[in-house]
Amino acid sequence: MAIEQTIKKQSYRKKNRIFEGLYPFGSILPAAIIVLLFTIYPLIYAVRVSFYKNILTQPNSHPFIGLKNFSDVITSYYFKTSLINTSIYTLVVVAGVIVFGLVVATLLNTKIRSVGVLKIIILLPWAIPAVVAGLMWKWVLNSDFGILNSLLYSFGIIKSYIPFLGDPILARIALIIADIWKEGPLAAIFILSGLQLIPTELNEAARIDGGNGLSIFRHITLPLLRPILMVVLVYETMTAILTFDIVYVMTGGGPGDATSLLSWFAYAEIFKFLNLGGGVALAIIIALITLLLIILYLLALRTEDTVSGG
Amino acid sequence: MSRKAMDLTKSVLSNLLVVLLIIFIAGPFIWVISASFQGESDLLKKPASIIPLNPIIDNYRYVFTGQIPESYLSKGQLRSRISQEARLIGPALKNSFTVAIIVLFINLLFATPAAYAFARLRWKFRGLFYNFFLGSRLLPAMAIAIPYYIIIKSLALIDTKLALILIDSALTIPFSIWFLTLYISNIPRDMEEAGLVDGGNNFQVLVYVVLPMIIPALVAASAFAFMTAYNEFLFANFLTKTIASHTVPVVISSISGNPDVSYSLISVCISLACVPPIILAITMRKWLTEGLSTTITFR
Fold this sequence. Notes:
- The structure holds two protein chains of two kinds.
- Chain A has helices at residues 2-37, 40-49, 68-75, 77-108, 115-121, 124-127, 130-141, 147-154, 168-195, 200-208, 213-241, 245-250, 262-272, 276-307.
- By secondary structure, chain A is mainly α.
- Chain A folds into two domains: 2-38; 76-274, Orthogonal Bundle (MetI-like fold), CATH 1.10.3720.10.
- Chain A has 14 helices and no strands.
- In chain B, 74% of the residues lie in helices and 0% in strands.
- The radius of gyration of chain B is 25 Å and the shape is flat.
- Chain B contains 14 helices and no strands.
- Chain B has two domains: 3-85, no CATH class; 88-296, MetI-like (MetI-like fold), CATH 1.10.3720.10.
- Chains A and B meet through helix 1, helix 2, helix 4, helix 5 and helix 6 of A and helix 1, helix 5, helix 6, helix 7 and helix 8 of B.
């Protein structure tokens, strides 16, 4: 009897151990299947296709051409243009989003009375589709009835309507402003959550010691916010480099090629010029640039940690 | 300047800045909503007015019932600017909503147990799988667009909502796993250990002990998944062919690309498209902030 029970208990334990051992795999299985389905094959396909000549209008001719797609892309006029466009765009947008985020978060963290309204509406631009955001700005800036033109005209600031999206420089500025509008709110909420963690005593102590607003911000707030600013920096850089939807509806890469960013160029290469090999090669180049930037950021963060002794 | 005067100036300047920010954030919304209540002839006046001078609801009535607004009938040359396409926004909203809600539940169902396994359990290949999920988001969208098409075609799912549900799930699950893993790693362990000592297995501990503690994170992750699915444009744009599966961004970009459509009608479509995200953003704001702050501010 006693022996039987022990055996039973042991086999139960064994079963239990197997269950425990397999449990983690079972936990991730459904998620892993979905993600694997849309990762492994597309990855292999993309890498493969980038080494072949693959023009969609010539379905029967796919010779292996090695790295020629990559070299063709890199030496093309559009690559240089869109790389310069994207670099400037990313730099300005990321800087703009972080400044916007810092300003809004600082205001949201105060007890100013009008802040209540800002708090309620701040997440709206982030929540709507980028396509919709792009169109809204296109409507605001429209050269026939856009409200910005109407307001400037009513106040007598301009004599005739300005085609904002028809001018290369203005179109670039418009795109940057629309993107800061769309991306800034999330950064603000991120930074706000960091600000709320800074003990108020710290600020008060600094004030008593004679610090003014700016020096407190520089020497207390900014260093304590660094980890969160890093998250925002990485996330916003990735988002900015990959910007596509908003360009698609707002400017279509134009006027000319003024707002042709890398992703737009990759899209046009595949879906307009039907050069699959070249477009995918470009997409891979974009991914590598993004990856490189993220690694650089993380390395910078690590060195800073070591320097500051953290 | 005296201390008092300085404080006053500061307060005035801060309030002014807040008001400017409110105008900047809300401006485009207000203009589009205002335009949706104006007739085409009012909109094309120079200068157009931000306050509708002759407010009409005809544009909305047309989108929902197909009744052509009078103002369009009277002006012959504007007649063509009525586009049937605008009437697709209703079904598109329904499609988007269905897809986004299902993606939300798939995320909760699949990402939560995975996140718990990553955050708490010690097992072989843990790091490998975790990095696989995170790394999957680095795939460039343009490079995988065509292979996605091939996969969906071989599954015979072109122009179905199921195709979008699968793809949007694959796009959102990695983020949900990352987010929930961080959140779970940051909550104290004592309760779970008590549960395990009491004889509960990992699954029971997850359901009865961990779930109630991570509700803010679950709400935030749900909102993120919903919005990503609702907003996704690139893949939806070429995997859907008809209104059977067209989503809001696809319909909106298609309408706005039509040179014949009236500005008022596009404004109606844009306004309607904003309703679900606006409701979500306003009601979920506290949860989102709380979920985000707990997740990103601890290490």
